[in-house]
Design brief:
This protein has seven helices and 14 strands. The protein has about 325 residues and is an alpha+beta fold. Helix 5 links the parallel strand 6 and strand 7.
């Protein structure tokens, strides 16, 4: 039987505008097995997992578990865990790291402040510091969530680690199983699908140079999905690859009479230019499995850029 990722690839399903949304990511190292809902079905105390979910709700913070690529022997709780927090909104992007002996310390964080891009709470509670290492390449490998993530994600994570990518981690859930292998790159928060090791290395090299690679990109987690599609469309149309120069400054629903949802998205450049991008939501046909665990076929939503107005404003002299 074909997997959801195979069907999606064979149907050439677009991936733009499909990234998970989060202004801030909070990542906690948790080795060992993960269940489908990893925060409450791993060796992490499920009471703590539920408390973290509750604390993050409606704050813009997304909590996920990470582990180093490789075999995951059941060795019990680690003595010292790695923790990362990353804010992804352009102009305020940061990635801080810390370690903790007690993951319950994460409940001392001000999640609302983290979602707004304030790292002081992370630094105070966990003695966090700016991350000075390589960008993080977080590959979704949670086979209990969807088998494609294990079948395709784990080999990618292992290949990256074996080839010397020091920022490679496995992560519990990034959404969009049918685009496996999927990954998130921090600090900027762009997600990628159908990833291959050589392409991931180019993405990471770009981040180190302050560039965003558009090929294979699902979008930036900083924006809702219409904004993700609009920003990528502007990058593709203009060739702009510099990180943090484009922002989604407005997304307005367009009224239609019984038609598909539409939005007018304003994408702004730091040099003063603005683009008005019209994005329409449609449904993929024919129906297909949205994940390998789905009991029925579905018609997943897609974001189509249907119009883009010429930039408004004048570019600043360089």
């Amino acid at each position: 039987m074909s997997t959801c990722a195979t069907v999606s690839r064979d149907l050439d399903e677009p991936i733009s505008g499909t990234a998970a949304t989060a202004t801030t990511w909070l990542l906690l190292e948790q080795p060992g097995p993960w269940g489908a809902k990893a925060l409450v079905s791993s060796h992490l105390d499920p009471v703590l997992g539920r408390a973290l979910e509750a604390a993050a709700q409606d704050t813009g913070v997304r909590v996920a578990l990470i582990r180093r690529p490789g075999r995951h022997a059941d060795l019990g709780a680690p003595r010292l865990r790695q923790v990362y927090a990353a804010h992804t909104v352009p102009g305020r992007v940061w990635l801080h790291s810390a370690t903790t002996h007690d993951p319950r310390q994460l409940l001392d964080l001000d999640f609302a402040a983290l979602g707004r891009g304030e790292h002081h709470t992370f630094d105070r509670a966990l003695r966090g510091r700016p991350h000075t290492g390589d960008p993080l390449a977080l590959v979704c490998t949670n086979g209990k969530r969807d088998r494609c993530c294990a079948l395709l994600g784990r080999p990618l994570a292992a290949e990256l680690a074996a080839s010397g990518v020091r920022g490679a981690w496995e992560v519990t859930h990034l959404g969009g199983h049918r685009f496996s292998p999927t990954l998130l790159v921090l600090p900027h928060g762009y997600a990628y699908g159908r990833a291959e090791a050589h392409a991931v290395k180019e993405v990471l090299h770009g981040v180190q140079e302050g560039r965003i690679v558009v090929d294979g990109c699902r979008g930036s987690s900083a924006w809702e999905r219409p904004g993700q599609a609009a920003e990528l469309a502007v990058r593709a149309a203009t060739g702009e690859d510099a990180a943090e120069v484009l922002s989604v400054v407005r997304t307005s629903a367009v009224r239609t009479l019984g038609g598909a949802p539409r939005w007018e998205v304003t994408v702004a450049h730091t040099d003063g230019r603005r683009w008005q991008v019209e994005v329409a939501q449609s449904r993929e046909e024919p129906p297909r499995p949205e994940s390998c665990g789905a009991s029925v076929l579905g018609s997943p939503a897609r974001m189509d850029v249907v119009a883009m107005r010429e930039p408004v404003g004048t570019a600043l002299a360089v």
